[in-house]
Amino acid sequence: MQVVPSVEFPGLAILMLAWRRLTASIRSGIVMTLLRLSSAILGLMAAALLCPSESRAWGAEGHKIIALLAERLLQTGDPPVATKVGELLASDKSNSWTTADIAGEAVWADALREKSPEGRLATSKWHSVKLDADNPDLAKACFGRPALREMMPASHGPQEDCIVDKVEQFAKELRDPSTSATERLMALQFLLNLVGDLHDPLLTIERADQDGRCVAVLLPGGRAPVRLSVYWGDDLVAEAEGKNPAKAAEQIAARLTAVDIRKWSGSTPEDWARESYELAKSTVYRFPAEAGGTFSFPARKGEAESCGPVPLYRLDGAYRDRALAAVREQLVKAGVRLTYLLRENLQ
After folding, report:
1. DSSP E strand stretches across the chain
2. What residues contact residue 330 under an 8 Å CB cut-off, 6+ apart?
3. pTM assigned to the model
4. What are the distances in angstroms from CA 198 to CA 152, 194, 255, 307, 330?
C-alpha cells in the first residue's frame, strides 16, 4: 500500500521525509503508529504556521552571486564538473518555487523554509551554527553532532543538526556513487545554499538577537533604522556588487587571481564556520559606540513582531567601509569554496 501526500512540495526527498515513515508503518502493519505520526505531523505543521518569520542570512542576490560565481569558475577551470552540475539541476522536475538553473536553485532551500511548514520544521536549524560569543564550542552548537543512522539520507537527518555537519553530509552524498538520483539532487540544492550561509557571520554566532533581526542600525545620513540582518544580507550586498547577480559574478570572476583561488580553496566547513564567527566578533558586532536607545520595528502584515524594543546603534562611515570589504570577501570566498566542494565531490 502506498500513501501519496496530498500537498505539492517541490523536492521529493524532503516531502517524503515524513511520509516514508508513515508508509513504512503501513507496510509493517503498525496502524496505530501511522495514526499517531499523522497527528503529530499535522500538529507540528500548525505550530510552524504560528512561528515568526526567520532571517534568511544572505538575501536572494547574495546566494545567486555565490552560485553563479562557482558556475563560472567551473566552466573555465573544470568544464566536465560544470556539465554534471547542469545536468543534475536539469533533472529537477518537481520544483515550482524557483527556476532550475544554478541561480534559482541556490535559493531553493530558503524557499523550502518560507513556503512549507514541513520544510521549516525539518531544516531551519541546518542553516546556522550558533557558536557562543564567549565560548565557541562547536559540539554544543551542533547539538552534540548527531550521526546519521545507517542508510539514512542526509535530507532525512534530525532537525537538530548544524550547518557544518549538513554541508559535510551532503558533500559525501554527492561523492558516493550509490546515492539515489533524487537524493543527489537534494544534496546539490542544499549545498548551493548552505555554503553561502556558512559564510554569513550572523549565522555563526549566538547573540540572542534572531541572527541580527532584533538589532536596529541607523546608517550615516539614514532616516529610519534597519535590521542588522537586512543591512548585512541585502543592503551591503547591493552596495558592494550591485543588484544584477550575473553581472556581479562576472565582475568578481574577472578580478579573481589564481593565488586567491588557491588561498581560499581547501580547508573544511568547520574552518569556514570559525572564520565567519571571528568576523562576526571583529566586524559585524563591533559598533562605533554603545546602543543609543531602542527602536521598535513595525510588524509585517499578518505577522507578529517577535523582537519588541531592540537596541539601536548609529553607524559611521568607518563601520560601513569595513562591512563592505567584509561582505565582498565573504561572497568571493563562498563562491570559490563552493567551486572547490563541487569539484572534489562530483568527479
Report:
1. 131-132, 205-206, 216-218, 226-227, 294-295, 310-314
2. 199, 200, 201, 276, 279
3. 0.86
4. 24, 6, 23, 24, 10
The single residue listed with the C-alpha cell 573544470 is 78
DSSP secondary structure string for all residues of 72-94: HHHHHH-HHHHHHHHHHHHT--S
- Tell me the per-residue pLDDT of 265-318, one tens digit each, with 9 for 90 and over: 989 999 999 999 999 999 999 999 999 999 999 998 888 888 999 999 999 999
SS3 assignment, position 218 = strand
User: Strand 131-132 to strand 205-206: parallel, antiparallel, or no bridges (unpaired)?
Assistant: parallel
Please state the CATH superfamily assignment of the domain spanning residues 60-345 in this structure.
Answer: P1 Nuclease (1.10.575.10)
| C-alpha cell read off for 298 | 513595525
**pLDDT per residue as tens digits for the range 23-34:** 333 333 333 333
Using alpha carbons only, how large is the chain's radius of gyration in Å?
21
- Cβ(66)–Cβ(338) under 8 Å? yes
Domain boundaries, the chain: 60-345
Q: How many secondary structure helices (H) and strands (E) does the chain include? A: 16, 6
User: Facing residues of 158 across strands?
Assistant: none
Nearest to 63 by CA among 23, 108, 14: 108
Taking the C-alpha atoms of residue 313 and residue 298, their distance in angstroms, rounded to an integer, is: 18
